[in-house]
Structure to design on (345 residues):
């Protein structure tokens, strides 16, 4: 990792919900030549750091504080214990669940109020001050309890770096945005199937496809992505479970394999990881495996291993991935109460 001083050393950063007993922001070492995690430290100065993002140079880590007030924090991570890079900044939106780096800003997706906030960055990667702008989503969906208003659940740059993409569970839509004079603005909004409840989006390495995992129905929407025009075109919707669930399934994370041959999803209500084979303009479900715990909130891939943050059972599990079939094989876990996400440096 850049700036670490120990060649070849790999680290993972784990978010957790402190309100549910989590240790906060956790640093772990990744075993050389394998996927096992060893815990190194924990920092609990920001409540509920539920989602994390690492700067491209690996020196600064950003965390949302998923609280009613909502904030974003930055940490220097050149050592084994994250050090605050200034004070947390309120985002002016409730319940931020995700963040991404785009065009010199940290963008946060504020689930509670359905907005996206832009916080400018200094050249050293620290937060420059208060938010420079906020985009309020509008709209609703047919699900009476979950879609009475907008619920921005994810925001991230597209692979070209030209656009920021915001996924909204409450409005069944994806907004393609830019930042103008410090404020996020909508370039175009794209509708998905009413009631699908889009949660997270992952891009294919080819730069021409995107996959949206839906929370209110256990499916993935396959889309064409045009980075030149900033357009997203839904093509088909594919189930992530063999059989219809008895109740709400709550799909959560989605990851595309680095070689572009597989898509993996997590489903919390069923405690499974699904394997989908990538086909021309589509996906094919090939099977599911247990997630290694209960309530897999997020997924991550690193060096041939898949990692599940199992929130309610309180651990991060890792799986060796068969390169031919894409099937994950459980390989171990480490205890992290109320684990919510994992990123790698």
């Amino acid at each position: 990792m850049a700036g670490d001083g120990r060649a070849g050393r790999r680290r993972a950063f784990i978010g957790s919900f402190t309100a549910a007993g989590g240790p906060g922001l956790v640093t772990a070492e990744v075993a050389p030549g394998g996927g096992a995690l060893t815990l190194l430290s924990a920092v609990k100065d920001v409540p509920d750091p539920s989602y994390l993002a690492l700067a491209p140079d690996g020196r600064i880590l950003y965390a949302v504080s998923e609280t009613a007030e909502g904030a974003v924090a930055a940490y220097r991570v050149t050592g084994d214990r994250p050090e605050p890079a200034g004070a947390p900044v309120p985002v002016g939106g409730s319940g931020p669940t995700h963040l991404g780096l785009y065009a010199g800003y940290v963008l946060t997706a504020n689930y509670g109020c359905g907005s996206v906030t832009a916080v400018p960055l200094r050249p050293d990667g620290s937060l420059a001050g208060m938010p420079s702008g906020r985009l309020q989503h509008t709209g609703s969906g047919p699900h009476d309890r979950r879609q009475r208003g907008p619920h921005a659940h994810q925001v991230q740059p597209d692979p070209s770096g030209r656009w920021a993409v915001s996924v909204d569970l409450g409005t069944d839509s994806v907004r393609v945005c830019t930042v103008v004079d410090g404020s996020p603005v909508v370039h175009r909004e794209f509708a998905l199937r009413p009631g699908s409840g889009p949660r997270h989006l992952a891009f294919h390495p080819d730069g021409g496809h995107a996959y949206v995992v839906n929370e209110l129905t256990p499916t993935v929407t396959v889309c064409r992505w045009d980075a030149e025009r900033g357009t997203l075109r839904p093509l088909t919707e594919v189930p992530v479970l063999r059989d219809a669930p008895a109740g709400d399934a709550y799909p959560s994370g989605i990851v595309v394999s680095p070689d572009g041959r597989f898509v993996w999803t997590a489903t919390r209500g069923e405690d499974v990881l699904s394997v989908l084979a990538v086909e021309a303009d589509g996906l094919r479900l090939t099977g599911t495996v247990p997630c290694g715990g209960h309530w897999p909130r997020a997924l991550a891939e690193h060096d041939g291993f898949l990692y599940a943050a199992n929130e309610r059972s309180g651990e991060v599990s890792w799986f060796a991935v068969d390169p031919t079939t894409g099937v994950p094989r459980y390989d171990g876990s480490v205890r992290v109460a109320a684990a919510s996400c994992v990123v790698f440096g």
Remarks:
- The chain has a mean pLDDT of 96.
